[in-house]
Structures are given as structure tokens and as C-alpha cells.
Write a structure and sequence with these properties.
single chain, mainly alpha, Ribonuclease iii, N-terminal Endonuclease Domain, Chain A, Double Stranded RNA Binding Domain, 2 domains, 3-stranded antiparallel sheet, 10 helices
């Protein structure tokens, strides 16, 4: 891999590795046959999994300290799971840097959510080993800032339709839908926002709310109804 590729990946991650061998190891799946048999990301993934859990546990405690342990556990589960981690990995284009054996390559392993989530955790583990917890925490927080902001303490997990619809689409299509604001109506003091949920240029649902976030939640709820009707 050329130096420019390493630099591009590091810019996306928000961290420059002191030893690129650590980055290479975090990207190496166990299916890749190496002279050094233990040169794969399994142990880094094990470590990174623990670091990621700690980062989000601490972060959620800061943001939602008045909430009970059960609610915060659900919020953490909505962020730290295979679907979300693999989605972040795809945003970082980690699939383009994975090092795998021929069998995994043929079976499109680079798009496998489990493998993608694992490589993200391995990279976090490698950052932790090189530079410690605070550096790994800073990188994770920057990568997940928009997602943590979307968590609303007034919306229980079971009613967080945006998270649920994202998980469904990521699992079934390996991609997530997007929300687009189509119209704002009413006077400034009583504004109504109209939002569409779109997937592959197809409008799946449409809803309105007193804020864009409320409209997006309602659009996601309507999309869930569409999916459930198709299953019946």
C-alpha cells in the first residue's frame, strides 16, 4: 500500500499511527495467510471492543447522568452494535483497505458487517496501544459526534424509530436511508417541517413535525409501518 493511501486513511480516522505496522495489523483479517501466523486483528479487536464500550459508557454518563442504568444501557446498545460500527467503517472506507484471504475476498467479505465492525474495533485497539485511552477516546468521539447528538433523552430506545430503521436497512441493504427537508410551512413562531425518508432515490415515507428531528422520527416511524405491512 502506498504512503498516500495510509495518509488518506489516517486523515479519515483522525489519528496518525506512530508505527504503520499496527495499522496494517488492525486491517488484517485472520483469513489472510501470513508468514507470521498471529499477524491479524483478532487480539486488537478484543481490546478495541473493551475500549469502545468504556468510551461510550463514560460519554453517556456525562450526557445523561440523570437517567437510570437501564436506559443508558439501551442508548449504548443503539450506538455500539455491529450495524452502527460497520456503517461507520464504511463511511471511513475501511472496506477499501481490508487485507483478507482469497476466500473472503470472493465472498465479498469487505462488505460483511461483522468483519467491518471488527476492523473498526481493532483500529481503536491499536490506537489505544500506541497512544493510550485519551487519544482513542478523542478519535471515537469525533467519529460519533453526530450520532451522539441524535440521541434525545426524551425519546426511549423503543420509540427511537430513526435508530431502528437504520439498523433494518443496514442489515438488509448494507446502506442506510437519508432524510431530506422538503418544505417549511407556517409562521416563524409556529413552524412545521416536512421531511421525506429516501432510499436509493425512492421516497419511502413522508411526515411533518414541529422540528426537523421530530419530523425525521415520524418519517422513520411511517417507514417502519411500510416495512411491517410488507411482511404481513
Amino acid at each position: 500500500m502506498v504512503d498516500s493511501s495510509w495518509a488518506q486513511l489516517e486523515r479519515s480516522i483522525g489519528y496518525t499511527f506512530k508505527d504503520h505496522k499496527n495499522l496494517q495489523k488492525s486491517l488484517t483479517h485472520k483469513s489472510f495467510v501470513s508468514v507470521e501466523k498471529s499477524f491479524n486483528n483478532e487480539k486488537l479487536e478484543f481490546l478495541g471492543d473493551a475500549v469502545v464500550d468504556l468510551v461510550f459508557s463514560e460519554w453517556l454518563l456525562e450526557l445523561f447522568f440523570d437517567e437510570d442504568e437501564g436506559t443508558m444501557s439501551k442508548k449504548r446498545a443503539s450506538l455500539v452494535n455491529e450495524t452502527v460500527l460497520s456503517s461507520v467503517a464504511l463511511e471511513l472506507k475501511l472496506d477499501q483497505f481490508l487485507i483478507m484471504g482469497k476466500g473472503e475476498i470472493k465472498s465479498d467479505g469487505a462488505r460483511n458487517p461483522r468483519i467491518l465492525a471488527s476492523v473498526f474495533e481493532a483500529i481503536v485497539g491499536a490506537m489505544f496501544l500506541e497512544s493510550g485511552y485519551e487519544v482513542a477516546k478523542k478519535a471515537c468521539r469525533e467519529l460519533f459526534q453526530s450520532r451522539i447528538e441524535s440521541l434525545n433523552s426524551e425519546i426511549p430506545f423503543e420509540k427511537d424509530f430513526k435508530t431502528r430503521i437504520q439498523e433494518i436497512y443496514q442489515k438488509q441493504h448494507k446502506r442506510v436511508p437519508r432524510y431530506q427537508l422538503v418544505e417549511e410551512v407556517g409562521p416563524p413562531h409556529d413552524r412545521v417541517f416536512i421531511v421525506e425518508l429516501v432510499f436509493d432515490d425512492t421516497v419511502i415515507s413522508k411526515a411533518k413535525g414541529k422540528s426537523k428531528k421530530e419530523a425525521e422520527q415520524r418519517a422513520a416511524e411511517e417507514a417502519l409501518k411500510v416495512i411491517n405491512e410488507k411482511r404481513v
